[in-house]
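User: Small ask, check this?
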Amino acid sequence: MLRYYGDPEIQAFAYRKDLGLLFPFHCRAKAYEDMDVDPSKGIGRALFTALSRLAQPSGHQELASAKLILLGFSGPGSLVARLTTYAPDRVMAAILADPGHFDPLGMDTVKLSSEALAVPQLIFTGSTDTHSGTKRPYEYFRKYFDQGAPWAFVIQNKTPHCCIINAKKLILLWTEAILEERPSFNGTLRRVDARKGWSTFMATRETETKDTWGEKTSELTDAKIQRGGKRPPEGMIPAGWLPNRRVAALTIEALPARVTAPVTMMPPAASEMLWAWTGVTNSNQLNSPDSSPAASVFPNFLFLTISASRFFLND
């Protein structure tokens, strides 16, 4: 996850789109399973309070109400899903990478409001993920996609519980399209018209890999895209909605992706917020008129990655 914030292509994208990049961490775990993914228990309020407090010393009051594009890996994927119900008016889009968590706060217990269903989601899984697997994330996807949610589901073949950086190109193209689909007018996000766009479908088969709950994972054997909300081709199941043909075509290209990037773990000190404004290396620079040009280009939207402490990623 950290690789996103040092990646020149992602920084350039953020600069072009007036996006701020923010990486909040959970506090370091004190015991096994000690990670809170329920935003109503304090972490949601803490997150938005932190954004509001940052607005004042930075001199940019718009940060207090900025819309968020959320990216969460593993347990924070479950948190990101729940944040869409906690604050649907603040969330422009959500990207869930290998989402899952310990019972009873896994993907099978996420309950979304009708307002949260309007938030586009891009959900990634790996066919060799022995933690979150593919079954629970897909069941979560289908539960709300069948209710009209503008979501997409991706299986990365031969990919374990890691390596979301491999999907960088797809994530950036999808994010760019959603920024165009959901501009904010007077603080209100526009709803996506799911009747437009493209539908994706996939054929899968079971693997010998099992997830935490003993369920076998699935891998992709074929994929197709069609314009509009058509029925799945014979032998295929829905893989979601995508905003335009470019994104849909790239999704098909990305589906059978192989692992090409090494696993990158977080640093031991995981109790602070790490900033990666394009070209800005620390929060003190935010007030400096002589710092990088990016420091004076503050966003209407934040690309916000939420992560657990290193304890859980190494688990």
